[in-house]
Design goal:
Elements: H1 3-15, E1 18-19, E2 26-27, H2 30-82, H3 87-159
Antiparallel strand pairs: 1-2
Helix pairs in contact: 1-2, 1-3, 2-3
Length: 174
């Protein structure tokens, strides 16, 4: 399930709560909010798995680039050896083999750099999304905690002594 969808659901659940008069507090459906938070806990590892898949794809691209460079290098060596017997042709072949090897190295470096840039971009975007989500979840957990504390305080003022508020669950730290 998409993390942003779950965060939007949590926000909607909080917004649909009943406003407490003369305050900026809301009474919310605790079970619904906790259910959404549980779903968030499940969805975050999926985002991490996706990040791992991107890293594996980068490694696969790098391996292909190395294989291609090795193949081109092997072709250059074979061609160089075959032409070594002819003096003028051997010099030309050797120069061509070196050019092919140099081009293969340039191509391999370029492919590696592109794969690294892509992986870094994807991972950076993923980190930004996770940071945003972490901040939103922490804010929402604080809101839920404050709502629960307010409800417990209200119960305590109405019926005498109130049970102590439950401890916050799964605090997210940045």
């Amino acid at each position: 399930m998409d993390i942003l969808y779950l965060v939007d659901r949590l926000e909607a659940a909080i917004n649909k709560g009943t406003a407490v008069p003369f305050s900026n507090k809301r009474m919310i459906d605790e079970d619904e909010c906790l259910d959404i938070i549980d779903q968030l806990r499940i969805a975050v590892p999926e985002e991490i798995k996706q990040s791992r898949r991107v890293t594996q794809e980068k490694d696969r691209i790098l391996a292909q680039a190395k294989e291609e460079a090795d193949r081109i290098t092997q072709i250059a060596r074979e061609e160089s050896t075959r032409m070594a017997d002819m003096s003028e042709i051997a010099k030309s072949a050797q120069a061509r083999a070196q050019a092919i090897m140099a081009q293969a190295e340039v191509d391999a470096k370029s492919t590696r750099a592109g794969a690294d840039d892509y992986a870094q971009q994807v991972l950076t975007e993923m980190q930004q999304r996770l940071d945003e989500l972490t901040a939103r979840v922490a804010t929402l957990q604080g809101t839920v905690h404050n709502g629960l504390r307010m409800l417990n305080d209200k119960r305590g003022s109405v019926g005498g002594s109130a049970p102590p508020p439950p401890p916050p669950t799964g605090q997210v730290s940045s």
